[in-house]
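ERR on first pass: missing label on line 2. Operator R.T. fixed the label and resubmitted. Corrected input:
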Amino acid sequence: MAIAAEAKFHVLAVDDSVIDRKLIERLLRNSSYQVTTVDSGSKALEFLGLHDERDEIEVNMVITDYCMPGMTGYDLLKKIKETSPLKDIPVVIMSSENVPSRISRCLEEGAEEFFLKPMQLSDVERLAPHMMKGKPTEEPPPPAPVAGGAQHPQSSCSDSPAIAVATAHSHGSSGNKRKAASDGVPPESSLSPERTRPRFTVTA
Amino acid sequence: MERSRAFCEAAGVKKSLFDQGFLDEQFRQLEELQDDLSPNFVEEVVNSFFRDSARLMVSVEQTLENVPHNLTRLDELIYQLKGSCSSIGAVRVRNECSRFREYYSQRNAQGCLASFRRIKSEHAALRQKLEAYFQVASRRAGPIRSVGRSVGAHGLSPLAPPRLFIWQIFFY
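pass 2 clean. output:
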C-alpha cells in the first residue's frame, strides 16, 4: 500500500476542524505520505505560493474540506485550477454532507475525487493514482492519464471504484513510480464492499 | 495479573460504550490508526474533541444569551459539532445534533433549545464514559491520565452564568 520510499509524496491537507486535521494527518502519514496541514484556504494558497516548482518543497496533492469559513474548499479548488504554477496539482474535496450538486460542481471544476467525511484508510488508498498527476519527473511524460478522470469524465471514470482502479492498473506502465503507485492500490481494498456511503470519482 | 485485569476491564468498558450506542465504528477506525509511533493517538483525538466541543458549546450558550436567538449562527455551530462527533464516532451526540438541525430547518426555536439541552446531556455522559475508559486503559501500560485536566484550561468563558455551564463540573 505504501508508495516507494524514495518517492515520498507531499500532501497539503486543508480543514478548519482541528479534529479532522489530526485525523487526515494520521491517515496520510500511516500511508507513508508527507503531510502539511493548514486550517484555511488562504493559508493553503500562502503555502502553495511559497513552495512552487522553483522551491525544494513540492506539493503533490491538495486535500481540502468543502465547508470552511471564508474561502470554501470549492473556492480554493477554483483558485488552484486558475493559477498557472498550481493548476496541475491534483485536488481532492472532502465533505460531511452528501449534496449531489456540490459534488458535481467540484468535479466539474477539476477535483479528482470527492470523499464523504470522515475519511477512511480505504479512501486514502484511492488517492495513490492521482498523486502522480501533479508530480514533475525526469521520466518521459505518461502516454495517457492514470485514472482518465480529467480527460474522459464520461467514459473511463465513473462512480464505480472498480473501473477507476482498473484504469489505474492499465496505465501503470511508464515508470517505476507509476507502477508502484498503481500496484499500491489493491482492487479489493478500493472496492470497500462494506462501505455503504457513495464514492465519486468524476461526475456521471 | 494486575495488567491483564485492567486489560479486561478496559475491554469491558469499551464494549459497553458500543453496546449502549455511545460510539460507532468510526471509533474503531481511530484505534486502527494508533500504533507504536502514535501510541496515544485515540486519546489525543478524544481530548481535542472535548476541548473543541466545549468551545463550540460555549459559543452556543453565548449566542443563546441574545434574544431573538440567532438560529443561523446556532446551526453553524451545531454543524461543526456534528462534524467533530462523526470524526470520533460519537454517535449519540451526533444524532442529537442532527435533530437540532431538523428543528432549525423548521425554524422551531423551542425544538432547537430542547435539542441543545439533550446535546449537552449526551456530551457530558460521553465525556464521563470516555474518561473512565481511558483511565482504565492507561492502567494497562502507564500512569493514570485524566481527560478533565487537559480540557480545563481551554476557552471557557469566565463570565457565563453558572446555570448554563453544567459541564464546568467536569472541566475544572
